[in-house]
Write a structure and sequence with these properties.
Number of strands: 20
Number of helices: 14
Structural class: alpha/beta
Helix content: 25-40%
Strand content: 5-15%
Shape: globular
Distance between the termini: 25 Å
Largest sheet: 8 strands, parallel
């Protein structure tokens, strides 16, 4: 692949705890991942993005990092990580790591020193420690996970945490924080990592003491761009490396600022992820994405799901098929057959668009959201911080089914950390490999064709009615998606279809690739 491999790559997201368990403790790990690398190679992905594997108390599934240069023992060792990177590269698969720069763990060495050092110390200056107003916190900011964004320590000061109390926020006005993260990036680049996914990329810079200035007090403040310019300068000293940001912003012009030539290479496309199953809405998002990115020369990214959102099959089977990050719509009725049909069509749509594509583990198996997990087994801090009113994200993080007819479905020899539904026996990799009409077979065929004919580039829309998305790519491949209620005629050689066509008619909720 050329140096800018990431412009048209298919990147597979590995939620390590739930991918494959190599040591039988019920938790996915590097040994399990390494054993399944041939599966990822056969699937046809160009890279894997791993959620955090660092040393962590796991208060938020590893997003509370205690040591950015160490591997959590539940996942393995640094030697295991280095071996994985080498084995992935040998199969032609690049490796993208999650980096968590907004906050650390309350068990990190820096934060423990800050607590011990006391008010006014140099150690506390690396975080946001403040006096409150009497018994009230310094301001009324609320945690993204629910409840106040401030926690009081015994000496009376409060510290800021936009997420859980176990995740104190770094103070990005402090030079130590800048130096630390540059060193962390360098540490992993030197070990062969090909890129970083930047967690919560828009919220690093904040000013709890500032008077209202018309801007969000901690989201998308101008100073954040200085951070990514530093990071880009470092990344550019390592040929072929990339940075992709998790940036949730409604303003597309401000989003594009993160993609200027001296900042991040790409950002996730959350408007596409959140769009309803509607031709006009999807067309608008696709057009807006391409128009937003063209001036800065950045490629689009397309993603249907990740470890924070309701799985596609479940969402697309609901009356409301949109996704709002702040409202997971738990318990809404869903039609699994309809959801699966639409998810198959959406897979072909996303894989045909110009740019890069992210696939969340299990989407290629058509896994649904698990909505009936026992409350006592839920681990997401959102569940606890919301007073058990928001079921959180555990339902999309249930361990993968690999083989067999009963749990743990080849995930490992121990009891999985979250229970798998018994009816997943028909969704295992083993079962789907033998079925040419399965979701897995569809993804494999699509990735083979994509590697030969698609990737980055341009598209040209074709007029086929208000309920149809149809476009031709640079190679001449045409994608047609019928989001209406009636079949539509299509013409050409069928390369791949999400459902069978009948007499040249494309059924509702179906996509086809034609030549």
């Amino acid at each position: 692949m050329p140096e800018a491999w990431w412009r048209g790559a298919v990147i597979y997201q590995v939620y390590l705890r739930s991918f494959a368990d190599g040591d039988g403790d019920g938790v996915g790990d590097l040994a399990g991942l390494r054993s399944r690398l041939p599966y990822l190679s056969d699937l046809g992905v160009d890279a894997v993005w791993l959620n955090p594997w660092y040393l962590s108390p796991m208060a938020d599934g590893g997003y509370d990092v205690a040591d950015y240069r160490g591997i959590a023992p539940v996942f393995g060792t640094l030697a295991d990580a280095e071996a994985f990177i080498g084995e992935a590269h040998a199969l032609g698969i690049r490796v993208i790591l999650d980096v968590v720069p907004n906050h650390t763990s309350d068990q990190s060495a820096w934060f423990r020193k800050a607590l011990a050092a006391g008010p006014g110390s140099a150690e506390r200056a690396r975080f946001w420690f403040r006096r409150g107003e009497g018994d009230a916190p310094p301001n009324d900011w609320q945690s993204i996970f629910g409840g106040p964004a401030w926690t009081r320590v015994p000496d009376g000061e409060w510290y800021l945490h936009l997420f859980a109390p176990e995740q104190p926020d770094f103070n990005w006005t402090h030079p130590d924080v800048h130096a630390e993260f540059l060193d962390v990036l360098r540490f992993w680049f030197d070990r062969g990592v090909d890129g970083f996914r930047v967690d919560s990329a828009a919220v690093l810079v904040k000013d709890p003491d500032a008077a209202p200035d018309g801007l969000d007090p901690y989201t998308d403040r101008d100073g954040v761009h200085d951070v990514y310019r530093q990071w880009r300068r470092l990344a550019d000293t390592y040929p072929g490396r990339m940075l992709v940001g998790e940036v949730w912003l409604p303003d597309q012009e401000r989003l594009a600022r993160y993609l200027r030539p001296d900042e991040l290479h790409t950002v996730f496309n959350f408007p596409f992820l959140g769009a309803p199953w509607d031709a006009a809405a999807l067309r608008a998002v696709i057009d807006d994405t391409i128009a937003t990115l063209a001036p800065v020369g950045a490629p689009a990214t397309w993603v249907l799901a990740n470890h924070d959102v309701t799985r596609t099959v479940t969402r697309y089977g609901r009356a409301d098929t949109s996704f709002d990050h702040a409202d997971r719509k738990h318990g809404m009725p869903t039609d699994p057959a309809l959801g699966l049909r639409r998810a198959r069509a959406a897979a072909l749509l996303s894989l045909a668009l110009p740019g890069s594509v992210y696939i969340y583990q299990g989407e290629e198996l058509g896994l649904p959201e698990v909505e009936d997990l026992p409350d006592e087994l839920r681990q997401d801090p959102i569940w606890h911080r919301s007073g058990h009113t928001d079921r959180g994200r555990d339902g999309c993080r249930v361990p993968l089914p690999w083989s067999g007819v009963e749990p743990p479905f080849g995930f490992g020899t121990g009891t999985p950390w979250l229970p798998q539904p018994a009816d997943w026996k028909d969704l295992t990799v083993e079962a789907q490999q033998a079925d040419p009409s399965s979701m897995l077979s569809l993804y494999r065929a699509a990735l083979r064709l994509r590697a030969a004919e698609l990737g980055d580039g341009t598209l040209r829309w074709l007029p086929m009615g208000d309920d149809v998305l149809a476009f031709t790519r640079d190679s001449g491949l045409t994608c047609v998606v019928n989001l209406g209620a009636a079949p539509v005629p299509v013409d050409g050689e069928v390369l791949l279809a999400s459902e069978p066509l009948h007499s040249g008619l494309l059924p509702p909720d179906t996509a086809v690739w034609l030549r």
